[in-house]
Protein 1
Amino acid sequence: MTEKRKEKGKSAHQPRASVTFPPKLYGTLETLAKEKKVSIAWVVRDAVDKYVKDQSLQSDKTKGNQL
């Protein structure tokens, strides 16, 4: 199994998560993924990446105000 992952250019270990969405939100994710011609997983990873970056920026601003 590890050999197959390496063949596809993926690392041997990528953490996984299972997420349950309300039906309406999942439908929206499906629509976005189809429009962008990507997987739902890609849409979710992209959204989480942007969210984490935004939170990090907000945290930096808060720290700056405390000085």
Protein 2
Amino acid sequence: MSSTLIGMSAKPLWIRAVYRLERTIGEPVEAAVRTETYFDLMTKATRTTKTVKRKVTGVSTRGLHLLNLPAGTDVRNLREQLARMERRINQLSEHVEELD
């Protein structure tokens, strides 16, 4: 008797059933995700998702701007500007300390 058979028979029946079910489902799924068709579908799905997100973001941004409210891109731009200002202030502070 091989060690895998001994190890398998020592496991509870429900574990063996789960393993068997996982292999029954898992093997065809694993084979499917290795095909060119799968990769083509995933590429198309990713592109479609990006396009939809971009369009929804554009509509919501225009809507918020019509209401004179900041959109996510506005907040992101302000955060980037603030980070640049903080770095510049730190540089100037270091320069002042060096002069003292």
